Amino acid sequence: MFTSSLYVLALLSLIVVLSEYLVRRTFLRHLGTALLVILVTAIVANLGIMPAGSSAERPVPAYHAIFAYVAPISIFWLLLRVNLRDVMKAGLPLVALFLIGSLGTTLGVILGMWAVNGSKYIGELYPAVGGMFVGTYTGGSVNFNALALNYDIVKEGVLYSGSVVVDNIITTIWMIVTLAFPAVLGFLWKGAKSTKPKPNTKDDDNLGIADDTESLHPMDIGLVLALGMAALLISEGLADWASSRGYPIPSIIIITTLALIIAQLPIAKRIKGAQTLGMFSVYLFLAVIGAFCDLAALSKMGELGGVLLVFALITVATHGLCTLLAARAMKLGLAEAAMVSQANVGGGTSALALARSLGRRDLVLPAVLLGALGNAVGTFLGFWAAEQLLLLLG
């Protein structure tokens, strides 16, 4: 029962309800639903009430289904309201900041591996581990696993599982940190330009409550569900077809394109339910991120767990510092810096959730596109670090 999909999905749904209630009715409203969902799920998972992560020995099908199906469909739904004219305001500066953040991640991996003496405490596979973390904090777990498979880290049970646990913990922590950027660092950003739209006068609007509240008919729900599942089916089919002909195109790019095409059509404005279902799906995704913050697993790894944790902390801290300094020099706002950094470390879906949580609907599409860019370049940066840069430390 503990890993039953019905049990897990019911509990995740209740956590989303609880978090939304606390945001609407208590002093916790200023934390935002996204942050509360992560924190509450992390606490519940570490108390043993629900599975803390998923492994080959004890898989949790619900978690894998949310990553594989719910997350990409949520992107499709939320992009159905994107106006491309708003997106053009973001432009090349965000791409430049993203690439700087990626290089900051690479620098952080080198500094972190040097600080923990990786060649001694991790062993001869330390360049491969470093490359995995360059990949995952540039574009996500796809890059992480690509390098792990190439260097056979997956056969090193303790090292691989330890790296996965640390990656998940740091990803959760960094989501919390980036959500706090605007509130904590605002005093340092006076005079910096931002594309932030004028705030709404109502607190409910600032929290996104009005946007996420719709009157729905069963026909609306059926149409939105059918559109989302059909879009995912088409995007995966086209991605497989292109890959078989030597043109690898990520399915996330295809589903994003489909959503944008529909969004520019007049009929898109009459589609109800996409916003509400999209945000609920994103909250489920964030809840799973919180569930993967398995502190008990980290404590069982002993010295290796501590070494990997310190290494990863130095990596993301260096990345964050480089991103913030570059954003300040480019006169970009803190919301932009937070979104770009989250696109690096957490990927497109996490960055999208963060943009919405900060009230920045204009950053929703850039978040997804930068996440896709990270998937494209992360593996290359990871191999560069593993094959050349990190070998200099040996």
Q: Given the C-alpha coordinates, what overall shape results?
A: globular
Low-confidence stretches: 195-207
Strand segment tally:
0
End-to-end separation? 48 Å
Can you offer a commentary on this structure?
By secondary structure, this protein is an all-alpha fold. The chain has one domain (69-393). It is 71% helix and 0% strand. It has 18 helices and no strands. Helix 5 runs antiparallel to helix 15 and helix 16 crosses helix 18. The longest helix is centred in the middle third of the chain and has 29 residues, at 157-185. The model is unreliable at 195-207 (pLDDT under 50).
Q: Any descriptors?
A:
single chain, 394 residues, mainly alpha, 0% strand
Question: Nutshell version of this structure?
Answer:
This protein has 394 residues and is mostly helical.
Question: Secondary structure elements and their pairing?
Answer:
Elements: H1 5-25, H2 33-46, H3 61-79, H4 84-87, H5 91-115, H6 118-121, H7 126-136, H8 141-150, H9 157-185, H10 203-206, H11 218-244, H12 251-263, H13 274-291, H14 295-300, H15 303-329, H16 334-345, H17 348-357, H18 364-389
Helix pairs in contact: 1-2, 1-13, 2-13, 3-11, 3-12, 3-13, 5-7, 5-15, 5-16, 5-18, 7-8, 7-18, 8-18, 9-15, 9-16, 11-12, 13-17, 15-16, 16-17, 16-18, 17-18
